[in-house]
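Handout, section B. The chain below has 128 residues.
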Amino acid sequence: MKIRGKVKKGLGEGKKFMSLKEYREGFYKIFNYYPYRGTLNLELDKKNLENFNSKIKTRKKRLVKGFKKNGKIYREVKVVKAKIGKKIIGVVFPFYKHHPKNIVEIIAKENLRREYKLKDGDEIEFEI
């Protein structure tokens, strides 16, 4: 199923978490690559959000374990494999979500904004 979303500026949290060695190693085990140190945030309209939510329930979610570092607890992250074209990407589901429910976070090997020359408001399609 194809889902379409609009690129939206994030909070900067994705970069922080995607730079942590423990998370990077966890994602490597799932994807066989180290993801770019950031996420692409996509805003889904009502129809795409409904389609996304119905499809995601049936998809296998892989788990990146949480850990403790420097006295801080980092919770588990669930991820579902997806695609943009032929690129294998991941849709991440952090334990604590800081975005509204219609925002999904995408990870990939590359910086997708740069790769596809995306700017805020541009639309992109991914397949789950």
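Note. The CA atoms of residues 81 and 90 lie 5 Å apart. Compare this with the example in section A.
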